[in-house]
Amino acid sequence: MRILFASSEAYGLVKTGGLADVSASLPAALRRRRQDARLVLPGYPEACRNLVDATPRPGPDGAPWQIIEGRLPGTRLPVYLIDWPEYFQRAGNPYSASNGMDWPDNAQRFAGFARAIVALARDEAGLDWAPELIHLNDWQTGLVPLLLDPERTGVERPRTVFTIHNLAYQGLFPASTVQDLNLPADLWHPEALEFHDQLSFMKAALIFADAITTVSPTYAREIQEPVHGMGLDGVLRARSADLHGILNGVDYSDWDPARDRHIAARYSAEDLAGKAANKAALQTRMGLETNPDIPLLGHVGRMVDQKGVDLLHAACTPLLEAGRIQLALVGSGQKDLEHATGALARAYPGQVGVHIGYDEPLAHQIEAGSDLFLMPSRFEPCGLNQLYSLRYGTPPVVHATGGLADTVVDATPENLEAGTATGFSFTPDSVAALGAALERALALYTARGDGHWEQLMHNGMARDFGWTASADAYLALYREQLPRRSRRAKAASAL
């Protein structure tokens, strides 16, 4: 099957979050299943530098962009970068300038990216290749299903699957943007592009895509309810028959303590000796007291309200005051949360270590060196760090929402006795509930001589959240989406 995977970021080329991990791993997993999957990304400077075997190719006649063709590092996955200097050759990250402010022309930038995807879909870019299906990801690709809509264009096109990685980021722009982007004026109403007098790229995809997926079964249910639907729950309920929750996978070639090149000492479920060496290395790296006995709690994530960083601060402060824990925190985001996190480190020197920003090797070291991993997210479409934590024998403490609820088995007495527990979960998303979960976790850690703690570690390390099951589920969905005539043609060609 010819599959074009379209994303605004991919690990190995450019990364700001979990979308990049999925965008690198899923199409590579599809290639391993003998599918002709290819990836298209904007041609950011970092992506252009990291692309393997980069070869420039002209774009369509008269287009202000060209294609840079190459491979994703470490894979055979073909990549097309849309080299549009006016939009993508600039300092900063994919969505914002170095000062943290969104690029003011993001609507134009990603509408341009969408139109380039359409040109690839119609084989207008001189590649002599066209996809049967396009897998689109998040609002940055949201206009593609509309631009390809056959009822408007009268042109046959590939099927479209759109994945919601986080409904909170919807690509909202002023109403005047509809005219600026030359979008159909007759679609400016609440049943189409209008979202409270704003243009919503996300809503365009939810209405015009052939199928919609999101990244965990629980999140697929949650976003059809007002509390998590971000104002789009009605649209999603109307399309519930086309909405599928498929859990993200993990690339264990990158995230496995038995072969991780970023950590101080490798280890496995069969030999956990390296865990202590990683804890000591993390304590040293983060400026913490080197103490093998005090519980070390780690956290890696964006410092935004969604991630519950304020809950983490409030619940951990009394434990720090009593000298019961250490904290190692990595992330960046809202300036108020960055400043509050820095203030926590200054208030508890030797107990709290903070790195503002993202550091991939340090993220691996935190997974390997922490005793517990904290994810008190108010909502979490899937989450990847809890999956990494399980593989690294670092029981996660999570709010029971979205993918966190789907992947972490709470260490209740019953689950501990049954040997199924893998971490600690709590609800609701409050300081008191998180504090109670931490007390349960610390009590089990303190009594680890009884064998329950090591069993908890082993249970998590034994869970398999690799891409096999997830890629198979996506492939099954793709096959359901192929037009009947395409399926008949394939059957006939096989005879």
UniProtKB/TrEMBL annotation:
Keywords: Glycogen biosynthesis, Glycosyltransferase, Transferase. It comes from the Bacteria. InterPro entries: Glyco_trans_1, GS/SS, Starch_synth_cat_dom. Its EC number is 2.4.1.21. Gene3D superfamilies: Glycogen Phosphorylase B. The keyword Zinc does not apply. The keyword tRNA processing does not apply. GO terms for molecular function: alpha-1,4-glucan glucosyltransferase (ADP-glucose donor) activity; alpha-1,4-glucan glucosyltransferase (UDP-glucose donor) activity. It is an enzyme of class 2 (transferase). GO terms for biological process: glycogen biosynthetic process. It catalyses: [(1->4)-alpha-D-glucosyl](n) + ADP-alpha-D-glucose = [(1->4)-alpha-D-glucosyl](n+1) + ADP + H(+). Pfam families: Glyco_transf_5, Glycos_transf_1. Pathway: Glycan biosynthesis; glycogen biosynthesis. ADP-alpha-D-glucose binds at residue 15. Synthesizes alpha-1,4-glucan chains using ADP-glucose. Belongs to the glycosyltransferase 1 family. Bacterial/plant glycogen synthase subfamily. This is Glycogen synthase. It comes from Thioalkalivibrio versutus.
